[in-house]
Amino acid sequence: MRVSFGDVNALDGLSLTADEGSVTALLGPNGAGKTTFIRCCTGLARPDSGSLSILGLSPGSPDVLPMIGLMPQSTGAWSGVRAGELLRYLASLYADPQPVHELIHLLGIAQFEKTPYRRLSGGQQQAVNFAGALVGRPALVFLDEPTAGLDPRARRLSWDIVRQLRDAGVAVLLTTHDMAEAAALADRVHIVDRGKVMVSGTAAELTVDGSLEDAYLRHTSGESR
Ligand SMILES: Nc1ncnc2c1ncn2[C@@H]1O[C@H](COP(=O)(O)OP(=O)(O)OP(=O)(O)O)[C@@H](O)[C@H]1O
């Protein structure tokens, strides 16, 4: 796929697949194009060229939207809505949502359920965002830096939930700057730089000659875009 913003080629021939029942991780420098890719997959942006099939359907089509979940990097939009109310509202948009009380329990949201979203800590907002991505029982879920800024316990909880999703047959596509996270979770890792996949493989395949961070540094340029 190709996507340009003026002179910036945010996606410059990026190509990849993500399988059901597996975790696919995108690693890459700031500005490499990871979020742009997720925005195209979720119908929030349109590629200038290339093709994209989401569960066999066009991204953004009414048939596909109920089957995908998105945890964005940040959502400034929710403002004064209380966490629990927000999740109940999101649940009301789906025909067969996961019960909100289950998600509140799963993600440890109960103690701040009645707090307005904008007053939550960064990590608490992440938990609500994660719950929002899962409430529609997605077959494919996009998690954009799901554990950035989380404390170790919350990060481990997120990892457990990602593994449960995978074991339930969900396709999980996540971005991360945490090499340990990619190594621990991903069935397949794609290292992206300047809008292209530079190398792909299992963590084991990519770490034959050193750590995943070594592979990352070898396959990315660090040039600003
Ligand atoms: N709406 C936009 N308008 C103009 N430029 C954009 C827009 N969205 C993204 N870009 C540019 O496209 C490039 C890719 O950005 P993107 O957010 O996809 O990177 P990323 O890999 O997700 O980075 P990070 O790791 O920092 O989240 C960047 O140079 C960014 O400035």
How is this structure best described in words?
The chain is α/β, with parallel strands linked by helices and 225 residues long. It has a single domain, classed as Rossmann fold (3-Layer(aba) Sandwich). Helices cover 32% and strands 18% of the residues. It has eight helices and eight strands, in the order βββαβαααβαβαββαα. The chain has helices spanning 34-41, 83-92, 100-106, 122-134, 152-167, 179-185, 203-206, 212-219; strands at 2-5, 8-12, 23-27, 68-71, 140-144, 171-175, 188-193, 196-201. The strands form two sheets. Strands 4-5-6-3-7-8 form a six-stranded mixed beta sheet, with helices on both faces. A hairpin with a 2-residue loop joins β1 and β2 (8-12). α2 (83-92) packs parallel to α4 (122-134). 40% of the residues are buried.
Which homologous superfamily in CATH is the superfamily? P-loop containing nucleotide triphosphate hydrolases
At CATH level 2, the architecture is: 3-Layer(aba) Sandwich
Low-confidence stretches: none
Mean pLDDT score: 94
Give me the Rg, rounded: 17 Å
CATH class: Alpha Beta
* Run of helices and strands: EEEHEHHHEHEHEEHH
Largest sheet: 6 strands, mixed
Globally, the shape reads: globular
Ligand inventory: adenosine-5'-triphosphate
Judged by helices, strands and strand pairing, the structural class is alpha/beta
Distance between the termini: 18 Å
Strand line-up in the sheet with most strands: 4-5-6-3-7-8
Pfam families: ABC_tran
Membrane topology: Peripheral membrane protein
Main location: membrane
Protein name: ABC transporter ATP-binding protein
